[in-house]
Input
Amino acid sequence: MTIATKTLSLTINDKAVGPIDVPETMLMQDFLYEYLNLTGSRMGCGQGICHACTVVLEKADGSLEEMRTCITGAHWFAGRKIRTVEGHARRDANGAITELSPVQLAFIEHFSFQCGYCTPGFVTGATVLLDQLKRNPVRREALEQVISAALDRHICRCTGYVRYFEAVRDLVLRTPGLVRT
Amino acid sequence: MNMRAAPAELSSASFGIGQPVPRNEDPILVRGEGRYTDDLSLDGQLYAAFVRSPHAHGVIEGIDTSAAKAMKGVIAIYTGADIDGQGYGPLRCQIDLPNRDGTPIRKPIRMALATDKVRFVGDPVAMVVARTAVEARDAAEAVALDIAVLPAVISGEDALAAGAPQLYDEVPGNLILDYHSGDAEKVAAAFAGAAHVARLRIVNNRIVVNPIEPRSAIASYDRKAGRYTLHAPSQGVFGLRNNLAAAMGVPAGLMRLVTGHVGGSFGMKASVFPEHVVLLHAARLLKKPVKWTDQRSESFVADHHGRDMVFEAELALDARGRFLATRFTGIGNMGGYLSPVGPMMATLNIGKNSVGMYRTPLVEVQAKCAVTNTPPIGAYRGAGRPEGNYFMERLIDAAARETGIDSAELRRRNLIKPGQLPWATPIGTVYDSGDFPALFAQALEAADWKGYAARLRRSRKAGKLRGRGIGCYLEVTAPPSNEMGGLHFEPDGSVTIVTGTLDYGQGHWTPFAQILSSQLGVPFDKIRLVQGDSDRLIAGGGTGGSKSVMASGSAIIEASELVIEKGKLLAAHFLEAAAADIEFTGGRFRIAGTDRAIGIMALAERLRTGAPLPSDLPQTLDVDHVFKAAPSAYPNGCHIAEVEIDPETGQVEIASYVMVNDFGTVVNPMIVEGQLHGGVVQGIGQALYEMTAYDEAGQLMTGSFMDYAMPRAADVPFFSFASRGVPTSTNRVGAKGCGEAGCAGSLPSVMNAVVDALAPHGVRHLDMPATPLAIWKSIHARD
Ligand code: FES
Ligand code: FES
Output
């Protein structure tokens, strides 16, 4: 029995990837690890529950969505555009990092994480939340609840979540246009 | 470049002890560039998958690997029979407590793969090696096990009952250890003469550790050198390397253990696991690296679990509410095999950590350790410390309710006063430092203990139950063991700290660098940390029992002093003065009373680049020092929780959470507070959510994140955090470990608050986890 493969092309972190022959049933997470050595999207449960493995899906209309790579097939992403945790920081022409993303900086400023294993998922989740708030600003009174609901999808065993929460709230409040007055 | 959050102009004083220095490791981790074990691939590596027992108890009658062997990609399959006779030792339990009659503890032998019997669901019986992970897993499913199923026993109490299924011929009655400490007669007399006795039967529930990084390992073997290498997460490579070597039957020099980033451990990843042995075996035979990474569903059944004990706890008080004696009589569930530290938690650590900050003159512990058909119990954040403390703090609240004395007042009456230090406890510890009454008063103040009535009224008006609970704690940390303090001045101008503790998320690089920087004036950004390669270590006690800063910190301080001694000789040479005239301050060696000086980094540079030195002088500033073990420290604190409960749903909300802690000298307050957040929330998880439920046959019914409720962001409160440190004299840093204290404070404060809220419904005690169902039932028990 040979494993059936299909060619896959997509855009990852603004770079065209493929066409590559990829097994039809391969999960996105395995594809990222084994074909591209992008190991930042981490396996925490493999069952779609912990959100350690998520990436940002950049949709055609410019909006962002969080996708779980552990339960989504690699081929689902054919022709689509994603951003993994490795692609959030800005880089110069040589690929050297010049500036972390606002979410990444906020997490460092607030000592948000400890072991860092869940962190790529939180970076992804918070980035998507910010994008949603940009499109749909939230009332100030509802902000805590909205952040809490967004973070609630992610499991972290080390931190107690408080500083992830504070980092996101702080960032939302100092980014113009995310909160309705 | 904006990679660090800290402003670049921070002065060097900003990196000293006590400063909230951002962690060096954070920019790496936040970019997803951490190198956890599964991120590593070695050339030509093969992949392994384990065949695990689907039954909790049974006799292995046959293992048929023929179908699996014929499958695509399969290279080899190993069963217990293949591992047997290879000279591999058993997986050892390191605890040697005697029975109360003086006979030794019974330690049944565990080999890496079960050969005769299986003893829990998840017990490994075979390993498949294939070209890909998917092929290995598919083939593992095709291995046919013929197991004659035996009745299973799940709880420690059931295991010790007459007629219980027997796990081992050599462990009659499933009893591993019958532990006793304390003066039974005096304790009995104290109880007989007591004005009041509080008694509770208290469960400390089994926990699935669940670091978010599953276990993983890559084994390889160098045929020429006859030497194994294992890449695996750990809590310190030196001790685990030695244990691995023993398990493989080779001298320590023929084993190397390498640990990169670790995604949480909480005690669990410190052990040799059976998977390590079989992977190393396969790597040797197949002449290729072999890699294995756990699946989450597998880690639920194959990792060591935590806690799982039940105690009858008793407190004797005199008429004025003074504690006369405590007695803890209970059972620790060991699981199907003894983990390296399995019997330590329900025995020694209950005794040591139930004393707390109180003047109780007599403590007795009688604990039976029993084997059952469940995964082995190992260390989990506190390893018996939070359990012992929880038992005591629950007892105090029960006594307060029964005697009508306010729960704060009852504690206050029994606190050890600063003037009474050093305080020798009945279990042999000597408290050296702390101001318990002041700390306690500060916590009550922060929690607005006096203003509670108004909050209670408000909750009641809203149809909610409200309760408040105090959780004081005083933990006896693991004594800082022998630890390496290596300081190497590198050719590139950096300074490497080599030490054997290992950071699995805490962040050691930064506080260790702060300590070094404050000792030697080495610029903070020039300091590197080497911790995860056993070939670099000459000693290493590892991380565990909240001792890393105490052990490695002390090692770094002592090593720094040796550097200064060498530096004085060298500076004397270069400055053409007598060594006795050289003083070292602010990172500079100076001829006393002059302005002739050389900085330590300049001196190191000169040694690297200058002409050879006379042979009677040290040739470098490098030091490889071993710090000798020091006594435990006694971190302590008071946590106060208030909860609101919806009586309709049984849902608990933590309305406020206040903590005041004494960790002695705090090296990096941001890291310390983060450790407390994490520890407190793990305790909240245990108290309110996490239930490890088995059916009668020993199948885990809560084997995924769907069924096993991990605390989530919406479940946790904000914390009011304060430090009130009194430096300890037991180690050079003055630090009292903080890593596990959060659990010690949150289990009792949250549960005391829950029971307080339910008290109007006649509830005296509720066991953890206080799930909505358990609470609802307790409210309606009298209906
Ligand atoms: S690993 Fe994908 S959701 Fe847990
Ligand atoms: S920081 Fe370790 S799991 Fe979140």
Notes: Residues A 43-46, 48-53, 68, 70 surround FE2/S2 (inorganic) cluster (ligand 1) (CB under 6 Å). Residues 106 and 176 of chain B are 5 Å apart (CA to CA).
